[in-house]
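Readers of this paper often ask what the protein records in our data store actually look like. Below, we set out a record of this kind in full and without editing:
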Amino acid sequence: MPHESRTPLTRLDPNAPLVLDTRALSRQPGSSREMRLSVPAPEDFGVEMVGVPEGAAIELDLRLEAVLEGVLVTGTATVPLEGECARCLDPIASTFEADFQELFVYPDTRSGGNAEDDELRLEDDLIDLEPVLRDAVLLALPLSPLCRDDCPGLCAECGARLADDPDHHHDVADPRWAALQDLAGELSPEPPEGGRGDSGPRGSVDQQGKQEG
């Protein structure tokens, strides 16, 4: 009966920007390491209306600490954001900070062997920080970002930007008078087809009468 291989089908790339090497901690509980990194943002790093441009610099302030179960990673990510306002659709740009903390368990310990599917593990003393960073940043991003808190948005009638013209409005007839206006249009008299009544065949008759007289 063949033995089941414990070698993972995919291994982490130690040269990947968000893969960290923890061998300097020597798996000694209490040992720690602090580092500051600048890494390029991966693709699709955002939500529908705002996100981090692919390749933009993400600044990481990290602390790696060895514990009995694995390596505890605590950090802050500073990311540049680009998107559009959910009300006026103007482009927006800002800087966002997200804090995170995650435990990566050793795969060869009892806790690592019984780890749940949603728990993260070390692979050959390497840590993949990307899923942690995605959760920390994406879950904190607003689904409806605003260029400013009191953005008035766009006119529902013509789409004009209301911030440019605070007095912008459209005259709307009172719907309670709409039926009367329609009725007035139906009852208005129509002018005769021949124009005024005193200029027509009558004039020719009078002229003829004078001739007969």
